[in-house]
Amino acid sequence: MVHGVIESYIWSFFNRFIHVVLIIGFTLAYCLDDFLAIHIFFGMLFATAVVLRIVWGFVGTKHSRFVDFPYREIWSYLDSIFGAKTRFVGHNPASSWAILLMLFLGICTAISGMLEAGIAKNQGIFAFLYAQYSHVRFLDGAHKLFANALLFVVVVHVLGALIDWLVHKNDSIAAMISGFKTTEQNESITLNIWQRIFSGASIALLAAVAVLMLGDNALNKSHAQRIDYAILNKNFANECGSCHAIYPPFLLPKQSWALMMSDLENHFGDDASIDSELNAEILTFLEKYSAQSFDTKVSQNIIKSQTDSTNIAITKNPYWIELHAHIADDVFAQPNIKSKANCFACHKDLEHGILTLSRD
Question: What is the mean pLDDT of residues 62-73?
Fold first, then answer.
């Protein structure tokens, strides 16, 4: 006790631990979304922490339970945001609503992330949706939407905490670090045996999830299957593969393959002409396995964006351009790449029909 003010133990170690995991998990998953394996690792830690915090909101200690949040005082609290404010032992009304909204958006972000991994990457527990893109197109972009909405609420929450600290001189931020908060009377919490067991089991679960996510598991497993085009069509593999790496037929729509095969004498600056019977056979194969034959995100967007009916270059498809817009031209000019057409520099398994980045 200092000057008649009591140091009460408000936030248990579990509260503070799960708070740190949520911060680290979301921050790193959001900032490292270009690196799929790392993004999924921290995303799953974040998702697990969100679920545990929701459960703790029902079975946890006083001030941590949702029933203890002062929801009804939100308007009077906001009305005096820069004036005299009532001190709250636990969460204030604004942070109470923010916590509910962040947890809700956290669940939405996690679920939409797993859906997107399945829809766009053929990966994880929703991989069965990969070849049904036209039916789930409405979900495309939901993960980004929820993640950005969550980021917005987090930023507002942090700004509110800073105002609480700098303007109102409250010790809410310090309390979330130490667990102790200055109060007029002793408001200290104690954990019962079940709360202690839940806390310990939750920390163990987070550690188990971290270990699990380091290896192959149902949540990050790729369901992509390698295609041997030499078996699928020997002539296609031999003729096309004799001059360059094999480009999977799903990278272009039917009309582009038809145009390309009709003018092999002028094949990107070379004469790649073959006899008419062989040409017809390979064209039939290309059209059979063209973008129109696959209900995947890549194929459907290639078709949708192909506004120039005379285009036969993958790198001139608007969807390809959109996906690679963030890559500087000097990157493509590097000696180990040389050209935008060298898709295989980054997509190591593309010759086998797997469109993933090597860094993934």
Answer: 93
